[in-house]
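Table S2 (text version). Query chain:
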Amino acid sequence: MTTTATLTERYISATIRSLAPEVQDDVRAELEGSIADAIDARLDQGEAPAEAERAVLTELGDPGILAAGYADRPLHLIGPKYFLVYWRLLKVLLWIVPAFAFAGVVLGQLLDGAPTGTVIGTAVAATIGSIVHVGFWVTLVFFILERAGADTGVKWNVDQLPEPTQNGAGRADAIASIVFLALGVGAVFWDALLGFFPTGGAPIPILAPGLWPWGIAFFLALFIAEALLAVVVYAHRRWTIGAAVVNTLLAVVFAAWSLTLLVRGELLNPEFLSFVFTDNGVTDETMRILTVITGFCLVAFPAWDIVDGWIKTARARRS
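Corresponding structure-token output:
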């Protein structure tokens, strides 16, 4: 004949079954004593034995959680000891790795001469894959550190406190934009009048002569608009959504216009390309690769400028 185990016996068994054998008896004895004392206290207050037992065990909670406390075993994936280091590293990698994966795959596919649909599909798939891999492997590493109790070696101190930031709206940014404008204008006229490469004769400009005057005037207008935007941002002491939108429009116009000229063969001087590359034995395939790399840069730099503007806007709004 078998007897039905009481709720207390069932609770204690559920608690100790996942513990190491050498501590099970001690935990059993401790729980039996504490549960009995708690039940007796409720009985003294006039509760019925069955109700008192059920109430005490309910207050103790899930036996799995209680067992984890006895075993000093975490029930969370990443605990507070590691979470901030984990979260900061994950955010940095998610900013960097997918972007480089996307850019690298796009560049590789373009150099391989893949059609547009293939380039976009492959790049998107690689980007999604990189996000999944970064999230999985970083989480797995910190999961192992959490369970092993290892020390990451990262210690916080007051020297790590960030310096106050102007969110890209400081005087230095406005000055840098104006200097960049002056250098850009100077480089355009230097290229047209003096040239950057020794030819042994008349200078051969890098930019196509057909850009003068209206094409060059358009590019210079974009440079001036960028400089004026930096001055406006500095005057307001912060980036705004309006400034970020204008910055985005300027970057998109620059990328689209310059890329269109490059594809149509109207951006770079054919005479310059012949003098530097073709006449020195550079093949058509190599020229195609150089054109792809140039086009990639004409898109990548404006894209980063757009991202940077919106990041500064977000920081300004938070502050």
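Notes on Table S2: The mean pLDDT is 82. The chain has three domains: 7-71, 80-156, 171-318.
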